[in-house]
Amino acid sequence: METEDYLLEMSESLPLSVLLIARNEANYIERALKTVQFADEVIVVDGGSSDQTREIAAELGATVLEREWTGFRDQRNFAMEQAKHDWIFFVDADEAVTPELESWLRKFFQGDYTHVVTNGFKIRRVEYFLGKEIKGACWNPSFQDRLLRRAKAKFVGEIHEYPEVAGGLVRAPRIASLLHNPKVTVESFLEKMNRYTTVEAWDRYSLGERTNLVHLFVTFFSTWAKNYFYYKGYKDGAHGFVIATMEAVSRTVRHIKLWQIQRMKSEEREDLLLYPEEALRAGALIHRGLESKGTK
Fold it and tell me: Residue 87 belongs to what domain range?
């Protein structure tokens, strides 16, 4: 077959299924969906939104599927099962696909992509804090596992779910990037941290991990130094200093919550503990309010 037969004009849809998992993402999802109109199929798996997430997605042409929220891993695996194309592309509701990424995807599908050796690609994501693009700390470089051959991938893990891909993944060119939410603030970071560290602590407890006071003391300083010096948070000036501090707080809080679980379990006072689903549900309304301004 001639190369010209593979060429896809900018107006043509790509043989690709774009997948989004969402719950109460009305402040973000319009921005995300408007940047993936090049895909032949767009599926939004809604985990019980109480806002206008489903309505906005449907108005923009997405197939909206409702599924009770059972965790990030389960939602993503369910979404993959619904896709009709061999290649799938995950986009988070607070992300946007750049024109450069769309261009790279078009070039990818111009060739005989059915014989591509790899089964998945990592896509660079541009991170922001207080509207400033972040160059260092553990936020950059940020490569996300997003373009996958559906039959060769399965998500594992809970809060930081990731796909197990046969043969591993390779990095797409840096210029082919996603843009993350540019309106991340101290308040929104800490609110999200509070929810996610609860889930992370339970996840690690279930895997047999334990902590102690010495570990708690060392964690803050080692995490701060790693982010500021090793990951070059200093390149971002005051923003980098604050990010390194917040990441150190986040890691320390996770260990404090793990310690709390250990103590309450040993004292048979589990009624005082907040479980993962409760933590995620409790923070949803606060999270939407903190990042609702200027997100579109």
Answer: 3-179
